[in-house]
């Protein structure tokens, strides 16, 4: 009863604080960032949070494809036609809001000063409308991608057990720590075949971060290699919806539950204005080039 009242209150009262921003990133491409970000976002929404999933893989985004929804507009139109940001928000499953990244390579956009200023202004109109804004970033770390990671309140770094993927993830973690040691970093090892070996591998990763970067990861978790992911991609229905009791869905739900517990404990919704931080890091990254 109490739970129900609480849920109703959450639905009726719009969030007043700035949305907490979470960046999903990886060193190597194709490790499962988009699938993990999407299913994570859906599960958060299912836990009565209002969530916006922002596909920032501009020109190569695939969130709308994973949802089987050909979006009318994407971030590409936003930058090319200076559309209002509210006009490119689509409604996904269980009430999840999302912004598609656009799928036409020819539409790749170079973010000049004018476009960035427009993005800063428009983003501010979103910041108070959601509990969480999740960025699905493109593979690798261009200076713009790194700035988005650094400006976010938290980062989920996705890797697979492959040594190449782990080494690339470590390079990104190192870049993050050099510029913003305070940023909470979660590590998810995806596509694990042998959970025991994978656990040893993430523990080693954690130890290397402690020894060489003098900081720690907030959390490490494992997601199995699971055929429901491929079948969810083929069916264009996220696995958390099409196979909620599968091994990967159960693990992902636990990751979201742990995240929400930690979030409640710290009671800290956001570590300051995302846009102010983004501006600062874009300048630093620009100067580093
Ligand atoms: N846990 C898993 N089990 C089995 N297959 C998986 C798993 N995670 C991802 N895959 C496979 O990997 C493919 C790529 O996943 P996804 O698009 O999420 O990666 P990505 O990191 O976002 O890629 P990119 O760097 O290109 O953006 C999926 O289409 C799926 O076939
Ligand atoms: Mg992706």
- Distance between the amino and carboxyl termini: 56 Å
**Which CATH C-level class is it?**
Alpha Beta
Percent of residues in helices: 40-55%
Structural class: alpha/beta
User: How does the major sheet shape up?
Assistant: 8 strands, mixed
Report mean pLDDT, rounded to a whole number: 90
CATH structural fold name: Rossmann fold
Strand line-up of the largest beta sheet: 3-4-2-5-1-6-7-8
Number of domains: 1
Present the secondary structure layout:
Layout lengths: L1 H11 L7 E6 L7 H14 L4 E5 L7 H4 L8 H7 L7 E3 L5 E3 L13 H12 L7 E5 L6 H9 L2 E6 L3 H17 L5 E8 L2 H19 L5 E6 L2 H9 L3 H4 L4 H20 L7 H15 L1
Parallel strand pairs: 1-5, 1-6, 2-4, 2-5, 6-7, 7-8
Antiparallel strand pairs: 3-4
Structure description:
- The chain has 12 helices and 8 strands.
- It is α/β, with parallel strands linked by helices.
- It has an 8-stranded mixed sheet, with helices on both faces.
- The chain is globular and about 50 Å long.
- It has helices at residues 2-12, 33-46, 63-66, 75-81, 113-124, 143-151, 163-179, 195-213, 227-235, 239-242, 247-266, 274-288, and strands at residues 20-25, 51-55, 89-91, 97-99, 132-136, 154-159, 185-192, 219-224.
- Helix 8 links the parallel strand 7 (185-192) and strand 8.
- Helix 2 packs across helix 11 (247-266).
- The model has no long low-confidence stretch (mean pLDDT 90).
- It has one domain (16-288): Rossmann fold.
- It starts with a helix and ends with a helix.
- The structure holds adenosine-5'-triphosphate and magnesium ion.
- Adenosine-5'-triphosphate binds at residues 26, 29-35, 57, 139, 190-191, 223, 225-226, 229-230, 233, 248.
